[in-house]
Amino acid sequence: MKVTIKEWNAVATWHWDIPEDEVCGICRVQFDGTCPTCKFPGDDCALVQGRCNHAFHMHCLMTWIDLETSKGLCPMCRQKFEWKDKE
Ligand SMILES: [Zn+2]
Ligand SMILES: [Zn+2]
Ligand SMILES: [Zn+2]
User: Fold this and answer.
1) How far is the CA of 58 from the centre of ligand 1 (A)?
2) Which of 21, 39, 50, 83 is deepest in the core (most CB within 10 A)?
3) Which numbered ligand comes closest to the C-alpha of 60?
4) In the predicted model, what is the mean pLDDT of residues 75-83?
5) Is pLDDT at 1 greater than 80 in this prediction?
6) Ligand minimally distant from the alpha carbon of residue 28
7) How far apart are the CA of 80 and the centre of ligand 2, in A?
8) Using CA atoms, how far apart are residues 59 and 65, in angstroms rounded to an integer?
9) Mean of the per-residue pLDDT values for the chain?
């Protein structure tokens, strides 16, 4: 039997595939919430994970990488921040 999801309530069921108590290393807000500049969680405020396994809101990371002082390093472990390849 083929199951079709007819209705998808993105707001109520939305959840990132990471531990619930994990917070963004930059703004310290949980990933089920948004970065300080966004109102709604989801693809518009995506999550990025680096090879070092630290994760951040995309917007938080962009802001951080833009800073000259960041030198392209992960704010958590100070290794060069490289985006983790999607499997
Ligand atoms: Zn954040
Ligand atoms: Zn955002
Ligand atoms: Zn890191």
Assistant:
1) 7
2) 50
3) 1
4) 94
5) no
6) 1
7) 22
8) 10
9) 83
